[in-house]
Specification:
The complex is a heterodimer. Chain A is α+β, with helices and mostly antiparallel strands. Chain A is 34% helix and 28% strand. Chain A has one domain: Heat Shock Protein 90, CATH 3.30.565.10. Classes of the chains: A alpha+beta, B alpha/beta.
Chain lengths: 141, 108
């Protein structure tokens, strides 16, 4: 794995309406690299869900997308409250999002399950009171 | 069938059509954005009553061919401009979601 390309983004925790800018930018960058459309869809949706989560729960964070020859890694890191019960958070329909977020069409408890659905590997490293780092891998076939 | 043709045949109105020749394949109805991202397929017509700015990102990321706003829902001008800039087609239907989907089904 000699060559790799990294895209770094700061996810603004204050502005809910701008969430998604990093994901849309990633989509553009991957398109320029000639990555297959279905892979781009998987990566950008998984990343968008992560972005939204960081805005809703953690006051923002950082996102890195690393393109290797055989895979794309997405690393989302925040200094939010952490996830108390990861197994519960992974269940479709479970959500701790406030009503204000639900009225925008989010908070359906599908964020983490979608991230898992669209990636080949996903690991959640979380400490309550300190923050969460999620690493996702999409293989390039 | 293209988005522009669908718009004419179904009697929808065009809110913004930056990619009017985009081909349509199937349809998905939903207002919960993560459900849409989890279930909608590429090139689907996406029928919704949500009109906030996030629908533009969801439509773009899920790669749907167009958004159809049911129930005569209108868009804020900044949302329309963002959709135009991001190449997201948005149509408007005066009908509820079910009748809107029925019109799509009959004409697609």
């Amino acid at each position: 794995m000699s060559e790799c390309l990294t895209f770094h983004y700061d996810v603004d925790g204050e502005d809910f309406t701008s969430a998604g800018q990093a994901s849309v930018q990633v989509k553009k960058n991957l398109r320029r690299l000639g990555i297959p459309p279905e892979i781009i869809r998987q990566v950008s949706i998984a990343m968008y869900e992560g972005e939204i989560n960081m805005v809703i729960h953690a006051g923002g964070g950082n996102a890195d997308v690393i393109v290797y020859e055989d895979r794309i890694e997405i690393i989302l890191a925040d200094k939010g409250p952490g996830i108390k019960d990861v197994a519960l958070a992974m269940q479709e329909g479970y959500s701790t999002a406030p009503d204000s977020v639900r009225s925008l069409g989010f908070g359906a408890g599908m964020g983490l399950p979608n991230m898992k659905r669209y990636t080949d590997e996903m690991t959640i490293d979380t400490v309550v009171g300190e923050g969460t780092t999620i690493k996702m891998v999409v293989k390039l076939r | 069938m293209t988005v522009k043709e669908l718009c004419g045949k179904c009697g929808f109105s065009a809110v913004t059509l930056p990619q009017e020749d985009r081909e349509i394949k199937g349809c998905y109805i939903g207002d919960l954005l993560s459900w849409v991202m989890g279930r909608a397929q590429e090139d689907n017509v996406w029928i919704t009553i949500m009109s906030n700015i996030n629908i533009v990102a969801v439509a773009s990321l899920a790669d749907v061919s167009c958004v159809v706003l049911a129930e005569g829902v209108t868009l804020e001008d900044d949302v329309r401009k963002t959709a135009e800039a991001k190449g997201v087609n948005i149509l408007s239907s005066p009908l509820p979601s079910y009748e809107t989907a029925k019109a799509v089904w009959e004409n697609i």
